Amino acid sequence: MKKLVFALTSLAFLAFGTSVLKAAHHEEDAVTPTSVIHVVTVSWKEDATEDSIKAALESVVTLAHDYEGIERVWIKTIKAQGDRTHAFVMEFKSEQALKDYAGSDAQKKWYESYLPVRSHSTTFDITN
């Protein structure tokens, strides 16, 4: 009976230790992901309407569905500085996914709603 209790206790400690190590590994991955964040700050053309701006931003969400290399998007600007009034973010699965996106059919389709209303934009691509 003592051997059984010892074996079960040892097994419990082993399971606990493994879960702690696994959690620590996942925490590190969460802090330093290998995805690429594509940050775009935008100022719109003077004649751009609220509806056309909204459509251009919502098309970023559609783009994420059309292009497999995009994991997440953010389109709601909470605060903007300078002459840029909006920003949005695309999270690409990898640097290669970002490279493959340039000139892709999905990008060209998205540009149909975005470029007619965009005045200026600045992009930043960030990864670890």
From TrEMBL:
Q: Name one Pfam family in it.
A: Dabb
Q: What is the lineage of its organism?
A: Bacteria, Pseudomonadati, Verrucomicrobiota, Opitutia, Puniceicoccales
List the InterPro entries hit by this protein, alphabetically.
Answer: Dabb, Dimeric_a/b-barrel
Keyword terms: Signal
Name the chain's protein: Dabb family protein
What species is this protein from? Pelagicoccus albus
First and last residue of the signal peptide: 1-23
Domain Stress-response A/B barrel intervals: 36-126
Instruction: State the source organism's domain of life.
Output: Bacteria
